[in-house]
Amino acid sequence: MSVPARAYLSIGEVLTRLRSEFPDVTISKIRFLESEGLIEPQRTPSGYRKFSQADVERLRYVLSAQKEHYLPLRVIKENLDAIDRGLQPVSVGNAGGPRLATIDGENAPHPALAATNFTAQSNLRLTRAELLEASQLSEDELSELEKYGLIDGNAKHYDADALLIARTVKELSAFGVEARHLRAFKTAADREIGLIEQIAAPLLAQRGSESAARAQEVVREFATISIKLHAALVASGLHQYR
What we know:
Layout lengths: L10 H9 L7 H9 L6 E2 L5 E2 L2 H17 L3 H12 L2 E2 L13 E2 L24 H8 L3 H9 L12 H14 L9 H23 L3 H29 L5
Antiparallel strand pairs: 1-2, 3-4
Helix pairs in contact: 5-7, 8-9
């Protein structure tokens, strides 16, 4: 969906909005921050800058970090990169240590059994080191998960699903379970995915946004029901331990 024209601000309007908080900000300063890659406003066909509300908030963050914490642009850029990837950097008041330390709870992976969140998307993008830290897996354990296809080892970054899988496997490791023991889970999941894709395929073959939306809803509903069935079958099989 396109953004209405007035959702964008000119550089002069941005300056007006920020000057009450940052009296020293100038148009030249905003242009400089753009040249350093800290903001990337869109352009009109004639070349004028168009700033979104997200651009304004990004500028506010940069200017605040400079004014209140005297952070160099390099560190601010690292923090912004963390935010862009769904992470929360260490408090800007902390001058030492890494800037990409903690995961933002609001961007945590969706609960596996929450129907309303089954198709929720996250902008979380972790490096390998960040995934290891967040999941408490060892390098060997993560390599094993990739070897058996539980986590995609070819991705440039690891998403929220990879983090959820890694953390869940870490919990299972307390019972002596290793990646090789989880191949059955992966096989079963792949079969369920194949069945869901067969059901959604006729809808996806149709043209129009309504068909795509309907396919998404069918996938969400069927996947949620299949997870409930899986849980019920496991519970039924273990009834002797109740």
